[in-house]
Structures are given as C-alpha cells and as structure tokens.
C-alpha cells in the first residue's frame, strides 16, 4: 500500500516496441486489467504489480528482453544467465565487470562500460544505436544495473549524479523516482556516478537468494521506484506509517525538529510541497484499495481523511483523470 504507483507514461512507452513490430497487445492488457482508457489518460497510474506482470508478459510475447527497443533482440533468460555468471564473484567490482563482459559477447547489445574518475565510478551507456524514442530502454538499463548492484551488496548504492544524452523528456518529473540524485540532461552520454567504495564490498547474495530474486526481476526492479535519501522520501515514509491519521505540516516539522518555514523551503528546493506529497500518497493508497475491492468508496474516502465522499471523488479525478468508481470498474 505504501509503494508508489507507476505513471501511465511508462506503460505506453513499454508497449512502443510491440507497437512498432505490429504485435496486438490488446488481449494482454485485458488479461492484466489495464484498460485502454486508463492507458490513454496522461494522469492515470497503475499498481507496481501490474507493471511487473506487463513487462514479464511482453518479454515472453516478443521473445525479447529489450522489448523491441534494441538493435537486436535479447532472448528471455539472458539476464538470468548473466546473474548466475556474476553471483559467485568476490566483490561488486568483479560482479559488474563479469556482467558487462557477458553482454559484450553479443555484438548488437547496448554497450555499458565502467570507468574510474578519481574516487568516483561512472557506469556509462551508449544509447546511440537504440530505437528508443521514449528512452524506455535507456532508463531501464541504468535503473536495473544500479538496483542489481545494490541488491548484490545488500545496501542501496547512493548515486551522486545521473546524466542523459537527451533533453529532459515530457515525463522528466518522474525521474526523481528513478534516479534520486542531481540530474544532467543533454549531456555527452547517459551515465550514473557513484563512489568507488561500493566496488570493494563483498556480495551478500548467493544462488539461493538469486533464485527468489529472478522470479520477479528485473521487471520488479523497474516497477518499484527508489525512494532515496531526499526529504520528500523521508516525509513519504513518515506519512505512510499510519495513513489513518494525517498530520499537518506543523506537526511533521516538529517531528523532524525543524521549523515549518525551513520544511517548506527544503521541499520547494526539491520541487515539491507538503500538500503535493500528501496528495501523491493518498492517490497511491486509493489506487491500492480500488484494485482490491476490500473497502467501499466511502471507507476509502474516510481512511484518506476526506469528510465527504464527494470531496474524495473530486480529488481523485484531479489526480488521475478518472473518478474512483470508473477506476475500480476498470481494475476489477
């Protein structure tokens, strides 16, 4: 329930390769409970589990883990084999080097390289040869390698910078969920920068944990945004501890031992506000319950702190472009 929902943009973008190949995915969307109306609404969101299942289903349907965006297909199972080849390495540096070497064996695979810059390490992607108009595969590859590395060593690798070889896209507001660090667009390459200390850390995973990991990954890595260390993320975690009570800004500021003015200023610097964070969390909780039919619309409204169901209806339509009733009808 506390997990962030996925913007409808990413669902449309993920289907781009299938669309290009003339694959009819209408039956697949119906099976996953993703309606065309939901897909066409720019403000709509879907649950992370739905997105995971969509990516996994597309891999199998297209017989391609690159989903039609690469210069050549990557057969399903390639990612799993790469993980099996890397899981016994001594430390993260060896594991990443072996994983990148694995993909370099395929001449048309997207090129990823690891390079040192003093105390920093840069993971660079050559996306110049991709057919990727929405940058879906570029985003996915960088996210997957970052989160795979974090999983291997059992701790989140803090990103210092993410650069992109293209201008900030229309869905750029979602990038703080994918890459919680300073972003640079229209750069000379797409890359992630992190501290070299992580490379020497031993792997904490093994064949047993890898088997469980591969049941849902790497699709799962894409569907669960990285909350990072930002104040916005800390506030979201704080608010989600008890979603039946919604503290005001003054109470949250007191909990964080800062003044309300300072809290507002920091959030403004991160491009958000307390009300916006609260609304995003309430939107995601509403979508969680609407997809499960465990609560009535009135009960959801009450849990989210709305005194009247009509106020909840208006707010939800503002957030997603659909009424709660219409959303539930499409999900169930």
Question: How are the SSEs placed, and which strands pair?
Answer:
Elements: E1 6-7, H1 8-14, H2 16-20, H3 26-32, H4 36-40, E2 45-46, H5 48-62, H6 78-86, H7 92-104, E3 111-117, E4 120-126, H8 136-153, E5 159-163, H9 175-178, E6 183-184, E7 190-195, H10 207-214, H11 219-223, H12 231-240, H13 249-255, H14 260-269, H15 274-290, H16 297-303, H17 309-320, H18 324-331
Parallel strand pairs: 5-6
Antiparallel strand pairs: 1-2, 3-4, 4-7, 5-7
Helix pairs in contact: 6-7, 12-15, 16-17
Describe the structure.
This protein has 332 residues and is α+β, with helices and mostly antiparallel strands. The protein contains 18 helices and seven strands. The strands form two sheets. A five-stranded mixed sheet has the order 3-4-7-5-6, covered by helices on one side. A two-stranded antiparallel sheet has the order 1-2. Helix 12 crosses helix 15 (274-290). It is globular. It starts with 5 loop residues before the first strand and ends with a helix. The mean pLDDT is 89.
Short description:
The chain is α+β, with helices and mostly antiparallel strands and 332 residues long.
Across the major sheet, the strand order is: 3-4-7-5-6
The tally of helices reads 18
Per DSSP E runs of 2 or more residues, the count of β-strands stands at 7
Low-confidence stretches: none
Shape: globular
- Beta-strand content: 5-15%
First CA to last CA: what distance?
Answer: 17 Å
* Largest sheet, strands/sense/barrel: 5 strands, mixed
- CA radius of gyration is 21 Å
Question: What integer is the average pLDDT?
Answer: 89
Topology pattern, helix = H, strand = E: EHHHHEHHHEEHEHEEHHHHHHHHH
Instruction: Output the structural class.
Output: alpha+beta
Helix content: 40-55%
